[in-house]
Specification:
Layout (H helix, E strand, L loop, with lengths): L3 E12 L6 E6 L2 E7 L5 E9 L2 E9 L8 E3 L2 E4 L2 E9 L2 E2 L8 E10 L2 E7 L3 E2 L3 E9 L1 H8 L1
Antiparallel strand pairs: 1-4, 1-8, 2-3, 2-5, 5-13, 6-7, 8-9, 8-12, 10-11, 10-13
C-alpha cells in the first residue's frame, strides 16, 4: 500500500446579496468541511493520504432557495452563487482542469426551456448540487496524463 499524502487548497468566492452560501467539501465520500463563505476569497486547506487509484473531490452548494434569486423584468438582479476559483494539489494549480468536472444538481431545473440535471464545464454553482472533480493517485502521473 503506497499511500500518497496530498495537500489540497480549495479557493472559493461567492456572489450573494442577503444570505451567504453554505458549502461542504468531500474527498472520496468523506466530509472534509461544512462551512459558510466568510471571506472573499475563502481558502479551505487540508491534507489527506490517498491510496493508489481513482478519487473524487466534491464541492457542494447546500443552502440556496428560490428567495436567493431576485428577478425583475425577466432579468436576474440579485443572486447567490458559489464560485470555484482554484484548486491546488501539492502546490500545483489545476487551472483549466477545473472545467473538466461534472456539476450534478440536487433537483432537475428548468433553464432556457430545457430540463437539466447536470452541467459540464461549470465552476459557478447556482443551484444546490455537487461539483465533482475526478483524479487519480499517483497524482503526478494523473496530472501528466491530463496535459
Amino acid at each position: 500500500m503506497n499511500e500518497e499524502k496530498l495537500k489540497f487548497v480549495v479557493t472559493l468566492s461567492a456572489t450573494f446579496w442577503e444570505r451567504r452560501p453554505q458549502f461542504s467539501i468531500w474527498l472520496d465520500d468523506h466530509v472534509v468541511t461544512q462551512s459558510e463563505i466568510s471571506a472573499d476569497p475563502h481558502n479551505v486547506v487540508f491534507e489527506r493520504a490517498v491510496e493508489p487509484g481513482a478519487h473524487s473531490l466534491k464541492i457542494r452548494l447546500e443552502n440556496k432557495t428560490n428567495h436567493d434569486t431576485q428577478i425583475k423584468d425577466r432579468v436576474i438582479v440579485n443572486d447567490m452563487l458559489l464560485n470555484i476559483d482554484d484548486i491546488t494539489i501539492d502546490d500545483i494549480s489545476l487551472g483549466n482542469l477545473l472545467w473538466s468536472a461534472e456539476y450534478l444538481l440536487d433537483q432537475p431545473q428548468e433553464y432556457n426551456g430545457k430540463t437539466i440535471n447536470h452541467l459540464d464545464n461549470c465552476v459557478n454553482l447556482g443551484w444546490n448540487g455537487t461539483y465533482t472533480l475526478k483524479f487519480s493517485s499517483p497524482f503526478y502521473i494523473w496530472l501528466l496524463e491530463q496535459l
